[in-house]
Each structure stands twice: as structure tokens, then as C-alpha cells.
Amino acid sequence: MCATRDPTDALTRDEVVSILLQILTAGNETTTSLIGSAVMLLLDHPAVEARLRADRALLESFIEEALRLESPFHGHFRLVRRNTEVAGAPLPQGSRVMLLWGSANRDGDEFANPDAIDLARRNAKSHLGFGLGIHHCIGASLARLETRIALETLLARTSAIRRGDAKVAHVPSLFVRSLQALPVELAR
User: Fold this and answer.
1) pTM recorded for the entire structure
2) Fewer CB within 10 Å, N side or C side of the chain?
3) pLDDT tens digits for 95-123?
């Protein structure tokens, strides 16, 4: 199998299968989490739901805000490759750090009114919900598309959504922000 321009540097079949499995499993869990979190935000913000029902073009902005506020992954550990400093704190080479994307996405220096849903946010895509740089999620476009389709369908097939009586529960995890239960009542 060849997945590079240089056939002498080709991936093995096992490497290709491993990469495909990672994409499939990671993409499934994170997109499911994003859709659930987006619905939860709609339940918590009926005025936003009303705006989206009136103007579906705002869905793209809403999805970016959902990614910023409820990122499916909140962070990962990384290894410091060389001595450096972040915000005045020394990070020696070889140190392990945990990047908290969920925290960075609510940084008031980066995002005005960081805890609010702002459908006109100018830097809406500056969040780290899909990572950054070489660690940017390769399935980001697909996740956005699947989420938009799910929300468009929900809004088109209902006249209202309300929180059900049962308690909202999240999966206990340091890294993943995923709902275990989200009771919803749908009105046609």
C-alpha cells in the first residue's frame, strides 16, 4: 500500500488499517458528543433555538460556539520538546503538560463574553475544539457537516424542544466531554 509520494516510504497494511480505525472511532465519538452538546445548549438557551429556527444560516456560527463551549475533547497530554516558557512559567524539556482546550476556549482575553453563545462572534473559528496545527482533527469538516445536518433535521421536524424531567449526565472523563443522558421532549 502506498500513502506517500515516495513508494519506498509506503505505509504497511497494518498501519493503514490502524489509521482508518482511529479515524472511524475518534470521529464517531466526538461527532456524537458534539451533536449532544449542541442540543443541550439549545435546551439551555431557548432564545438561541428561536433564532436558529428563524434563520438556519446561523447554524454554522452556532456549531462553532458549541465547539468552543462544549469541546468534545477538553485536552491532551504533551511532552515538552525543548526548554520554553508559557505566560512566565518555565517548562523544562521532557516535562509533561496537559493542554486544556476547554479552558483556552473560554479565555476572556481571546473571546469577549466567553461564557455566552454569540452567533455574531468575529473570531468564532479561533477555538481549539479540533486542536491546532499538526494536531488539528482531520475529520473537522465532516464533523461540522454531520452536526449541521443533524441540527437542521431536528429543527425542521419539530416545532420546539424542551428538557425532559430526568437529570442530564455526562460521562465521567478527564479528556472527553460526552453526554451519558440528555432527556429531551420534542413537539411536532
Assistant:
1) 0.82
2) C
3) 999 888 888 899 999 999 999 999 999 99
